[in-house]
Structures are given as structure tokens and as C-alpha cells.
Amino acid sequence: MRRLFNDELKCRAGYRTMTREIRKMTPINHKTVQRLMKELGIHCMVRRKKYRS
Predict the structure, then answer these.
(1) Strand segments (E) across 1-53
(2) What's the N-to-C CA distance of the chain in angstroms?
(3) How far is CA 32 from CA 7, 13, 43, 48, 52, in A?
(4) Which burial class, exposed, middle or buried, applies to 29 when counting CB atoms under 10 A from its CB (0-12, 13-18, 19+)?
(5) CA-CA to 22 of 20 to 30 Å: which in 28, 34, 35, 49?
């Protein structure tokens, strides 16, 4: 999971993208992916753009 996040997705993936990629190999629930990412300290490095009107 960590290798997939760092090497292939270059730290630009949240739990939804990680779930999609992992499901190509094995069926897994998105809640399980969220929990594992939290335990491993993995989180998306891309910041959201602020709204400016």
C-alpha cells in the first residue's frame, strides 16, 4: 500500500483513488482503505484551492 502510494501515485491520492487502484488487484472496502491509511500515516499531499470570489 505504501509502495503504491509513493511510487505509482506520487503522494497525490486520497482514499478513493487508493481504493480504486487496490481493487484492480483484490476486492476491498473503502472503509478498510481509510483505516489502513490512517494507521500508516498516509494522506494526500495536494492542497485544495481556496475559493475566491
Answers:
(1) none
(2) 39
(3) 21, 15, 14, 24, 35
(4) exposed
(5) 49
Which burial class, exposed, middle or buried, applies to 34 when counting CB atoms under 10 A from its CB (0-12, 13-18, 19+)?
A: middle
Eight-state DSSP code of residue 26? S
- Choose among 7, 12, 14: nearest CA to 33: 14
Q: What pLDDT is stored for residue 27 in this prediction?
A: 95
Per-residue pLDDT reduced to its tens digit, 10-46: 777 888 888 988 899 999 999 999 998 899 888 788 7
The burial of 42, by beta-carbon neighbours within 10 Å (0-12 exposed, 13-18 middle, 19 or more buried), is given as buried
